[in-house]
Amino acid sequence: MTVLTCAAVRKRLAAYHDDELPIQQRIAIQSHVHACEACAAELATIDDLADAIRLSAAPGPADDWTGLQPGVISRMRAERYEAWPARVSRMFEDMHLVWIALAATAATFLCGAIVLGMLRFASPERDDSLAAMIATVSAPSGSDLNPASLDGLIQAPTIPGNGIVSAMLEQSGGTEGELMMTFSAVITREGRISGMELLDPSNSQPRVARLISGFSRGRLEPARHGRDPVAVNLVWLVEHMTVRGKQRG
Predict the structure, then answer these.
(1) Residue 208 to residues 168, 171, 175, 242, Cα–Cα distance (Å)
(2) pLDDT digits (tens, 9 = 90+) for 150-173
(3) Domain limits, the chain
């Protein structure tokens, strides 16, 4: 057994107190302390000092750290769940939903292509076609497809004195006496008469058909909004009266 002096024991008392010495040195110091009152008093002083430091230290926040680890782990899992890679991976978890979405998208594009093709190749001459209706709705007011109504801001169209319309008006009465008819028509921005319609269907005289045919071939001075020609809807009253004198007997 190793015999230690008091000086050697006192150098190792702190390490002995903290259980940092090998087992042989611990046994030797313990034997020396039991036999030496001075070294035992020194060891007691170290114990008292450790107890005083322990008592003076603030208590550890044991309660404050309760649940910290589960909270951190939960937050990390939530952030990982909301990350873009996780979202993309969840999108492809059920592949049948992916195929359904792709099929629906393809069907939508196909239907759109078919509708656009129908609009592209639809006959523009038909007024009841889908292409004609969309073109009419989207046309600006005052264009040939969307005529405006006459108002105080639009100058009414006029009839040139040397055209078919004037000639037909002069011949409208002729020797057949009185004539009064009401038409509705559209005067385009070029002065053409289109969509002419008799508003009194009971008046079906042959000269009415001649008038409509002649008017449809004629041309007027277009209506104007300021200096710009515009297409207009109008109601046209044609009236002719022949006055004959009566010979007295």
Answers:
(1) 11, 11, 14, 17
(2) 777 788 888 776 677 777 776 665
(3) 6-56, 69-138, 141-240
